[in-house]
Write a structure and sequence with these properties.
Blueprint: H1 2-7, H2 15-22, H3 26-37, H4 41-59, H5 64-70, H6 76-87, H7 91-99
Helix pairs in contact: 2-3, 4-6, 4-7
């Protein structure tokens, strides 16, 4: 099930769909996920999506709208609302800082 999340972060995963994929109830999946990762399945999905998005923002020259869609968000607004708490800044600022030349 984690492999499915990693392969297809853009899929419209729900807790019920992930539990079905894992062959267990939502409550059992939630308990096991919390014990293993410290996150519930949807929290893990969000963190993974933001990790993929951060890599794309840093390494590719694609529009933020395309990055948002690639990780399952249908609007830049929704993507930004998810990205900011995970990375501490909006996606555009993250891209700017991630690409800034390092001095030292």
């Amino acid at each position: 099930m984690v492999a499915a999340i990693h392969r297809r972060p853009e899929s419209p995963w729900t807790a019920a769909a992930l539990a079905g994929l894992a062959g267990m109830s939502k409550s059992t999946l939630n308990r096991r996920f919390l014990a293993t990762t410290g996150l519930n399945p949807v929290g893990y999905l969000t963190r993974w999506r933001m990790s993929v998005a951060a890599s794309r923002l840093r390494d590719r020259d694609e529009p933020i709208e395309r990055v948002a869609r690639s990780v399952g968000y249908t609007s830049v607004y929704a993507f930004t609302r998810a990205f900011h708490p995970e990375r501490g800044m909006p996606p555009s600022r993250f891209r700017q800082l991630a690409r800034a030349p390092r001095t030292g």
